[in-house]
Design a protein that fits this description.
Blueprint: H1 9-20, H2 26-33, H3 37-49, E1 69-77, H4 88-96, E2 102-107, E3 114-120, H5 123-134, E4 140-147
Antiparallel strand pairs: 1-3, 1-4, 2-3
Organism: Simplicispira hankyongi
InterPro entries: ArsR-like_HTH (IPR011991), AsnC-type_HTH_dom (IPR000485), Dimeric_a/b-barrel (IPR011008), Tscrpt_reg_AsnC-like (IPR019888), Tscrpt_reg_AsnC/Lrp_C (IPR019887), WH-like_DNA-bd_sf (IPR036388), WH_DNA-bd_sf (IPR036390)
GO biological process, one term: response to amino acid
Length: about 160
């Protein structure tokens, strides 16, 4: 069940329902998709075991916990040299895992190496993160920042 083709119409309907509300009961999902609650449960378990459903989470609005500024940072790393015992990308990837401000990190093609989504309280918090953490990292050569003015669309759901 690694490909989209392995999912049937009912699996996709169950996934859409769970993406809309991960706490929905199997009774309600069953009514929506035309299955019994026990059949929904079996399918959900199969989707979990196959890794189609990765995990369940609570989505927290950053502003509601004092994190009102979101920025996207394009990061360029230095290239590997003989003086490094480890590849700069490996060192950077390990460091990113420890930075709570970084809520998403993607490796990119093109001019920059990584795109970070950073969520912070305000400009002072952002400045501290950049000056005391990101730019002090030995693998980071350069970064460019864009600040989010307005969230036009934000979803965690993938089109199934």
């Amino acid at each position: 069940m690694q490909t989209k083709d392995a999912l049937d119409k009912l699996d996709r309907a169950i996934l859409r329902s769970l993406q809309a509300n991960g706490r929905e009961t199997y009774d309600v999902i069953g009514e929506q998709v035309g299955l019994s609650p026990s059949a929904v449960l079996r399918r959900v378990k199969r989707l979990e075991e196959a890794g189609v459903i990765d995990r369940y989470v609570a989505l927290v609005k950053p502003e509601s916990v004092g994190l009102g500024l979101t920025a996207y940072l394009n990061v360029r790393l230095e290239k590997a040299t003989e003086s490094h015992k480890r590849n700069p990308m490996d060192v950077f990837r390990a460091a990113v895992q420890t930075w709570p401000e970084v809520v998403e990190c993607a490796s990119l093609t093109g001019e920059m190496d990584y795109l970070l989504r950073v969520v912070v309280a305000d400009m002072a918090h952002y400045s501290r993160f950049i000056m005391e953490t990101l730019l002090k990292h030995p693998s980071v050569q350069d970064c460019k920042t864009s600040f989010v003015l307005d969230h036009v669309k934000a979803t965690t759901a993938v089109p199934v």
